[in-house]
Design brief:
- With about 325 residues, this protein is of the alpha/beta class.
- The chain has two domains: about 5-140 and about 290-315, NAD(P)-binding Rossmann-like Domain (Rossmann fold), CATH 3.40.50; about 145-285, 2-Layer Sandwich (Dihydrodipicolinate Reductase, domain 2).
- About 30% of the residues lie in helices and about 25% in strands.
- It has helices spanning about 30-35, 55-65, 75-80, 95-105, 120-135, 150-160, 180-185, 185-200, 290-305, 315-330; strands spanning about 5-10, 45-50, 85-90, 110-115, 135-140, 165-175, 205-210, 215-225, 225-235, 240-250, 250-255, 260-265, 275-280.
- The protein has an eight-stranded mixed sheet, covered by helices on one side. A five-stranded parallel sheet has the order 2-1-3-4-5, with helices on both faces.
- A hairpin with a 3-residue loop joins strand 8 and strand 9.
- It is globular.
- The termini are far apart.
């Protein structure tokens, strides 16, 4: 039996919603519109509404995707009167909280919101209470949770395939200067992944840069079983870098936007009686599972179709992430 298309509302029509799809160097799709309007999921989505506070972006969106305005709801008064199965919130971070409330009150049963879900711990507590009352399902787009390599590393660490985890190192650097909130907007990627893999730390040793022109934080986090994780987040670099390194008793895993690598302990070619870390090939994944955006939306369709109840990126995990952010921010 042919499945009904998922009636979708897209709030916010900027970079992550649409325009990053023009970047020829990125993998595709790499935006919400790229999946919703693309062919990867065999047209499972029916885009029924779009909205942005900047009306020019509505027309730019229609032009970019070569779709007519007829049949699309593009103003808030009509959006409130319409029925949607899914609302995608891709607005700026400062408006996520109010847009989630708006979508819940509009009785939209499924929400996908860009990270961070909101701005602070107080807001996330209020959102979780609203969600519970309305029985709304809410995903947060931390796309690395849907990347097959990141999922693989999480699995083999959990299984102790290469021994016990000892140390984690996380770097998130940006080229912005004086923008502030680097920890919230960029560091959240690393904190989300470490929360997914290890949960919440029980102890912190934090420092912030003494340079008032630099938005830089350092944190040493302590986990059960004598595991330590070091995080450095900062701006004022002449490059962007995201990198997480896991060190176990028998291996080293480097997950990075500059290229990921896996090293395992083998007999050394340099010294007799010693073992060295040697790079091995990364695992090969099915082509159909390579794109985290498609994996995320595939999970959403499976939940809506009642094939699954699994939500890999639930908004509930944001509670721990905001606790981590606010604890580090106290330094």
């Amino acid at each position: 039996m042919k499945k009904e298309k998922i009636k979708t509302l897209l709030l916010g029509l900027g970079r992550i919603a649409s325009t990053l799809e023009k970047d020829k160097l990125r993998y595709h799709p790499c935006t919400h519109a790229g999946v919703i309007l693309g062919s990867a999921l065999k047209n499972r989505f029916d885009l029924k509404g779009i909205y942005d506070t900047n009306s020019k972006k509505i027309y730019q969106f229609l032009y970019q995707w070569n779709i007519p305005k007829e049949g699309l709801v593009t103003n808030l008064s009509d959006i409130i009167k319409s029925k949607f199965d899914l609302c995608v919130i891709a607005t700026n971070s400062e408006s996520h909280y109010e847009n989630i409330i708006f979508a819940i009150e509009a009785k939209i049963p499924n929400l996908l919101v860009e990270k961070p879900a909101c701005l602070n711990l107080t807001e996330i507590k209020q959102l979780l209470e609203k969600k519970k009352q309305a029985k709304t399902r809410i995903w947060v787009n931390h796309e690395r949770r849907y990347h097959p390599l990141y999922g693989y590393v999480k699995k083999i660490i959990s299984e102790k395939k290469y021994g016990k985890l000892k140390t984690v190192k996380m770097n998130v650097f940006t080229s912005t200067k004086g923008k502030k909130k680097t920890l919230l907007h960029d560091g959240t990627h690393a904190l989300d992944y470490i929360q997914w893999v290890l949960g919440k730390p029980f102890n912190y040793y934090n420092r912030a840069s003494s340079n008032p022109k630099e938005d830089r934080f350092l944190s040493l986090m302590e986990y059960p079983n004598d595991v330590f994780a070091f995080l450095e987040v900062g701006d004022s670099r002449n490059y962007f870098q995201f990198e997480i390194e896991f060190q176990t008793t028998q291996a080293r895993f480097v997950l990075s936007n500059d290229g990921s690598k896996i090293f395992i302990s083998q007999k050394s070619d340099l010294y007799e009686g010693f073992f060295s870390l040697k790079e091995i090939n990364l695992p090969v994944f099915s082509k159909s599972n390579l794109n985290p955006w498609i994996n995320l939306y595939r999970e959403i369709t499976d939940v809506i179709d009642e094939k699954s109840k699994i939500i890999t990126g639930p908004i509930e995990d944001s509670h721990d992430i905001f606790e981590m952010i606010e604890t580090i921010n106290l330094c």
